[in-house]
Amino acid sequence: PFVVALNKIDKISGWQKTNHVGRKRIESQPSRAREIFDEKVYEIIGTLFDEGFKAELYYNITDFQRTLSIVPISSKTGEGIPELLMTVVGLAQRFLEQQLHIEKGPAKGTVLEVKEEIGLGTTIDTIIYNGVLTINDTIVVGTKDEPVVTTIKALLKPKPLDEIRDPRERFDSVEEVHAACGIKISSPNLENVVPGAPLRAVKDNLEEVIEEVRKQTKIEFELDEDGIIIKADTIGSLEALIKESRDKGIAIRKADIGNVSKRDIIEADATQDPLNKVIFAFNVKVLPEAQEELQGKNIAVFREDVIYTIMEKYDEWLEKTKEALEKARREEYVHPGMIRILPEYIFRVSNPAIVGVRVLAGRIREGITLMREDGRLVGKIRGIQSQNKPLEEAKQGEEVAISIDGVTVGRQIKGGDILYTDIPARDAKKLREMDVLTIDERDVLEKIYEIKRKTDKFWGI
Could you tell me which residues are beta bridge partners of residue 379? Predict the structure, then answer.
């Protein structure tokens, strides 16, 4: 049997967290929230049916062998998690009992955490999920580099709290452990072991076990010449974060296990692309020297303990940063703009002329020279105002008042005239090459090219 975890029920509009379980949790919701929930569930049931699966909410199922169980949950609020665990455990006990067996050979396990313990040095907290592990066994454990081969000095289980008298005597030593169990291992040369790494006990097949651990520890992916930096706490979380990043088309120049170090900050700052000055830090710390190095540097560090939160915050940052970069790039060049002088809004005819205009396309800014449709220059914009407030620029569709130096209304310009921004040839050429113009700006740029090339066939080339 399969179980489908239907996550993010807390995102439903109007959803209210309750202490009810199963069907009662849904029935206790406001009517609109129930309607949305039902719509989403039936949509998912329909999608699964199209793929050849019959599915239903777990509390409506009578035959779990023929129907997929759907358990509504929220990983954020914790709603539905007990029911999900209950369903999985119940189905496993009911249908998988005959398939469950434990081998009695050399132990296989996974490292959960690497810790420094008083009087013991570096230790590893490990889950043994198969086989038997005994004191003095030779084990192979995955590291950042090559697997380490070492001999167990002690197998330790924590004492009950009421028996602890001295912090250095928090553990009981045992001679042997059987799957499945958690155990602390004390052994030499564990400093470079990484959480999530495989652990294997060795009998007479050392080289074979080393190769097996090497393959399981090695993360197969290609680094890019330029890109972001990823740091994570375990091999599994690092692989997951790499996959999410690749799915979004994010280039990765470095991916490693461990805390964010000063070297990571320096490497991130060295990249030329501001969109790559990024560090994803999943469930790890930013070391003090890295924090100090980070001061004054334009580096974005996304440090979270949920991968999706990192990706969501990155997306928000990326959008804002792109907008800021585009604005900065725009300010380097004179941009195309086309305006129409509104005849009913002539406020002053000269020194400077002040007129109301509508921006027909593109944009205008302070300090920009204007020209007529015949290519003749008519003056420079001194200022832009809207409702008596000064503006740096005005965009398509806006109606504003502008003051123009060096022009007299009724002579060089008049109400109803169409004027264009006067763009230097090098700016026009660069803007054609860059992908920063909107559709209306590109249209205006082409009109400016037509005007300019009436007198200079090679303008803007």
Answer: 370
Fold classification of 337-453 is Elongation Factor Tu (Ef-tu); domain 3 (2.40.30)
- Judge whether residue 204 has pLDDT over 70: yes
Instruction: Using CB atoms within 10 Å of the CB of residue 361, give its burial: 0 to 12 exposed, 13 to 18 middle, 19+ buried.
Output: buried
pLDDT level of residue 97 (50, 70, 90 thresholds): low
The CATH class of 3-99 is: alpha beta
**CATH code of the region 108-217:** 2.40.30.10
What pLDDT sits at residue 398?
A: 95
- Average pLDDT on 334-355 reads 94
- Per-residue confidence (pLDDT) for residue 180, from 0 to 100: 77
Average pLDDT over residues 234-256: 90
Among the listed residues 414, 348, 415, the one whose alpha carbon sits nearest the alpha carbon of residue 385:
348
Q: Exposure string (b/e) for 58-71, b if CB count within 10 Å is 16 or more?
A: bbebeebeebbbbb
Ordered by start, the domain boundaries in the chain are 3-99, 108-217, 229-330, 337-453
Task: Look up the pTM and report it.
Answer: 0.56
- For 405-440, letters b (16+ CB in 10 Å) and e give ebbbbeebbeeebebbbbbeeebbbbbeeeeebeeb
